[in-house]
Design a protein that fits this description.
Oligomer: single chain
Bound molecules: zinc ion
Number of domains: 2
Radius of gyration: 21 Å
Structural class: alpha+beta
Mean pLDDT: 92
Low-confidence stretches: none
Strand order of the largest sheet: 2-1-6-7
Order of helices and strands: EEEEHHEEE
Largest sheet: 4 strands, antiparallel
Transmembrane segments: 81-104, 110-130
Keywords: Membrane, Transmembrane, Transmembrane helix
Length: 161
């Protein structure tokens, strides 16, 4: 997990081109970006939205930065969800192994669904908890911005409103 520095920077990528390499059923997409390092400073509390510019095309983008305390709160919420998912899965395993539950019965179905739903919830929430840094790249316009991506986040993502 990354520590929450008061000052740091994100990498904004401007999409230069996308190429496809295709052999019969195999296809690989390659995106090329021109990158800009955008520094930020966390507010003392709450969140702030700063205007930034792409170093490649000069277009305006927005950067929402949460304070360290606020980010810690968001992380805690994610962790709580992850642990609840884990507890749900564990409870389903224990209950399912102690009691005979035919799948035709509603209780059997409910336990199976709890087991199947608990794991992905744990995985996704746990991963988001681990990767949350309280910084989001947003587009300045209405719709999703097709050209600008944040490249150093949990997963590369496009700037959206
Ligand atoms: Zn740009």
């Amino acid at each position: 997990m990354r520590e929450l520095r008061e000052q740091s920077g994100i990498t904004v990528g401007h999409l230069v081109d996308t190429s496809f390499f295709t052999v019969i059923v195999y296809s690989r997409e390659t995106k090329r970006f021109a990158t800009t390092l955008v520094p930020y400073r966390r507010p003392a509390s709450g969140e702030e939205i700063a205007e930034i510019r792409c170093g490649t095309c000069g277009r305006e983008l927005l950067l929402r930065v949460r304070s360290a305390a606020e980010t810690t709160r968001v992380r805690k919420r994610r962790l709580t969800i992850a642990l609840a998912g884990l507890a749900l899965t564990a409870a389903a395993v224990v209950f399912g192994s102690l009691v005979y539950l035919p799948l035709a019965e509603p209780l059997g179905k409910a336990v199976l669904i709890a087991f199947l739903a608990g794991l992905p919830v744990t995985g996704i929430a746990g991963w988001l908890w681990w990767k949350e840094d309280g910084v989001r790249l947003l587009s300045a316009g209405e719709g999703a911005d097709r050209d600008h991506w944040r490249l150093d986040g949990a997963m590369p993502y496009r700037a959206a409103p």
